[in-house]
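Annex B, item 7. Sequence and structure tokens for protein A, then protein B.
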Amino acid sequence: MEKKEIMVMNLDQKDEEMEGAHRATGISSSDTSRKYRDTPIVPDTEVTEKATRRSFTAEYKRRILREADACKEQRQIGALLRREGLYYSNLDTWHRQAERGTLDALSSKKRGPMPRKPDQSVRRIKEQEKEILKLRARLKKAELIIEAQKKITEIFQISLDQQQEEN
């Protein structure tokens, strides 16, 4: 037990010796060593979801452009970009789009191929194909009925011929 107390005292003496040493953050190294002595350092191992592309509304882009144009001093634009989490390339692209004067330049566009509107002739062809299938099914039923009627008439004809022979 005495050894442990001595070791603790030695650590405290080292902390007192380094009292004048400060980090760039203004926190002395002795403060941090006391705070985090017993806490293990564990890296963050959580897997994040797939990143999603940010999209900005036209109103947001206009507001940021107005704020950037209002910046007079040299470091104000950098502070604006840091505050909003943007890059200078965003600002540059939005300026060029605004100069071109295109109405849709400031609205975010959906990526990928444009959806195609179905052609009227294609829709009409599909409807006609469905109708043809229905008519073919009806025709098959009608042919079966006709075949059955022929067989029935043949049977009755035979029976009628037999009855006439008997008479």
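Protein B:
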Amino acid sequence: MSSGFIGKRLCTRAGEAIEGGLQSIYGEQRKVNPWKSVERSEMTATREKAMAEADVIAWLSANIPEWRLEDGWIRRTYKTNSWKGTLMVVNTVGHLAEAAWHHPDITASYAWVEVRLMTHSAKGITDKDLYLAKKIEEVVQWQPGSETDNTLEGTPKDPRFAYIKYD
């Protein structure tokens, strides 16, 4: 559960409102500290457990072999054709991460983007990291023009329009 101030009223994601140090939930009022941030434990009922390194490597090999496990993170470097392509990849990853509410580390340069995932609370790789990596891979590598059952043309093969270097 996250919270934020709107005027003098603190609103939480669950729709609770806190004003003047009192919180009303289902008709019950109790004193609260409106300056206290929401605890991480309130956001996640159970703490995720990190997967074994061998299990992570096996899952990556079977599902997204372009990703690798290195220094406790799963990583993928996407090569782009220019700064425009780099920004498109960064924005795509940003949207997916925000929608998933699981945020990677991103390093960007003129013609490449590195995405790194790890669940900090578990101090390792969890299902969250693997499934977000898989979704990132699907979306960034999507080429509608190469699908037989898709009416979308995809980016023209002309180098003037290229923005990512597909695998």
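Comment on protein B: The helical segments are 40-43, 53-63, 83-100, 127-140.
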